[in-house]
Model the fold of this input.
Amino acid sequence: MAETASQTRPSELGTKAGWISTTMGTAVLIVIACVAFIGVETSRIIAQRADVLAEALKDTVNLTSSLRRHAELTFRTADALLIAAVFTLEHEDLEPDNQRRLKALLAEEVKSSSQFVSFAVADSEGAIILNSAGGEGLWNVSDREHFIYHRTHADRGLHIGSPVRGRTTGDWIIPVTRRFDRPDGSFGGVVVAAIDAKYFQDFYDGLEVGKNPAIVLQAPNGKVLVRRPFVEANVGRDLSQGPTFQHAKQSPAGSYELTSLADGVRRIGSYEQGTTYPVVVAVTQNIEEMLAPWRQNTLHRLGEAGAIVVLMLGLGTMIWRTTRSQATQAAKLREANNRFDVAISTMSQGLCLFDASEKLVISNPRFREIYGTSEQQTRPGTPFTQFLQQRLDQGDKLDHPVDRGTELRAAREHYRFQLHDGRTIAIRRTATPDGGWVSTHEDITERVRAATLLAEQLDELVNARNHLEAQKNELIATTEALGAAKDAAEAASRAKSEFLAMMSHEIRTPMAGMMGMIDLLNGSILDHEQQELARIAQESARNLLTVVNNILDFSKLDAGQVKPETINFSVEHSINGAAVLLGQKALDRGLVLETSLAEGMPRYLKGDPSRIAQILLNLVGNAIKFTEKGSITIAASHRVLEGDAIELRIEVIDTGVGIPADVKPLLFTPFTQADNSVSRKYGGTGLGLAICKQLCQIMGGDIKVESEPGHGSKFAFTVQCRVGLPPRAATPSLAPTIEVNAAALDILVAEDNDIIRKLISKLLARRGYRADLVCNGKEAVEAVQKKFYHLVLMDMQMPLMDGIAATEAIRGLSGPERTVPIIALTANALVGQRETCLAAGMNSFLTKPIQPDALYAAILRWGILESDQTRGKAGSAVAAS
Done:
């Protein structure tokens, strides 16, 4: 019956396999149909998107052309009136009657044309001599950009200036101007047509086109005249480097896709440049808004397609489930048929099964291989006693006695056979539910040999472990000693840094007071002798500050606190900057200061321009100091290294006194000069060149000198750089320009030093600022809660509460005073001090000695900005000059 069953199974399985194959084929066809359907729908959706964008671009191009013609028409109207006014001014005497007629003509044009605010005529000094809105003689436009342009250029064409605030209305206007000349051809003045920027803004805002398009009208210099949507900060913004203006330089009209610099929105747009007047009109539309209807339609179609796919997949799922069920049954049949054969044939151990009558049921090939028996000797039905007797007759031994009188069922579950050929067989037997047993037989000869060898090696391993344990203890002791040394070194480094910070503060604070008071003294009324004494005191103080700064720089370098920057910079700009700073000093000594760049020098490099400038200023300053006559040359060259690395080499060559051969090895040693007479004659600490050498080394370079007494010197230093990019231009400030006599501000000064407090108070009083003085951070926190201040000048080191703690306390308040601008004042010039101040919430950072120009600039930037914001919140209008 078993043979019959085994013979019928392949037929049954074949029938089921054919049915399953057909079912699976149907499911595959359904899946392919779904994929094809999704592909077709996807292609249609993509094509529709392209059509939507193409149509939107076409509408944008048409709108751009219309707006360009509108802008040119507006400027053409203004230009016609300006030409007529210029003709009148150049060919007729501006007698009162002629002046009244011209003013009436211009006033009539302003009245009849909504785009004009006023027409005015300014003489060669900028004084308004005729104004359609009246007020002649009240205004002067010599500071306006358009007036300066005409006064310095002989261009008699139309000039479209940057938008400005009208001085009478305070509204934005676009000045359109022409120059007129006197009969002798000299500059006579400017005729100005003030076009109301709101005229364009209202026109653009009133257009019902597209989905909120952005419209920009740019002047010939790239500055924004008008933009929709209106943003105050964008008026007059320089977009000459923006994509629209750059495209216009290459072609007068075109289209593009870009991310707007104004609002960061991805747009598709078109631009046109005027044919008569080179203004640029650009119209851009938000791609996301244009695609909104397409996206909604796409979602609808995707929903329909999804429903169809779901139905098709549902059918496929049903087929798959049926197929899976049939396949599972077929697999179970195959598994039941093959499991035992696979187990028997692939076992690495010998296996035999005896029934309850102690007769062999089955054995595998490995069993017969282990004991060297044939299939005949181990055929099913062979008694266990017969097999055992065969093994014993051959001299095999069990690890416990078994003979015919032994109860087999009482035998152990684990035992070993020691065969006559020396092999060892491990036997594991397990009882079966029917009263028989199954046993596995494994040749463990190699395992026994390995165990013996392992036992022999165990003692060696124990000895090695003991030796390693001793070494480990020694390493632990060494590590602990190194850790203690490391902690001591770090503690010493921290102590050194704290000492430098303290010395920086303790030295620079009294120097700040001394230099500030000398500057105030120089600004007072002095006789000639007093002025000379004050000048000498000021020069001595500056020399002393240079000495202190050199000592602090050397200490920071020695402590490893200086890390070079890696930023883009221009080599030419750095060299020319040094020449400009020291040019006057060289000229005063009758010296020629020249610069040169080698051919092929990359225009931009990436490195630390501040440290390079520090080295360069030191070397050029020394050259000027030690050169009585002749010239000084700064020469830059480069050498290409591996990858994008560049070795920058700068030489400073002078025709000075030269350096003796025995002194040159000592030049870069700290506190060393050529001889004592040099210090007496020229001054200095001997730290400058030592600092230069260390700066070169931290930037991957070095410094060398070539010199002979009486034949001048050549100092050459190298630093490692990489090929760079043009430095990113700084964003122009949107804060209004503030005159020196601007309205007084209320400023709180927190400073514990009496001299510095008095110095700051006097500096503020000179500009008309009102100053309240407190002695520590705690008083500063209390003061800002009692009174409104436009600005706080905060010293860093004060008793009771220092500047950092006071700033954090102010920023933690709940009222509007928590946003008051705070400027740090500190004599600590060490690395990281600026970052500490900004992290605490301060807005800016000034070091002592205080430079009046730097102080006033910081007040103008932060104090005036706070004043404008405060007035804006109160609803007051700010009129810009």
The first helix runs from residue 2 to 91. DSSP finds 20 helices and 29 strands in the chain. Residues 524 and 531 are 9 Å apart (CA to CA).
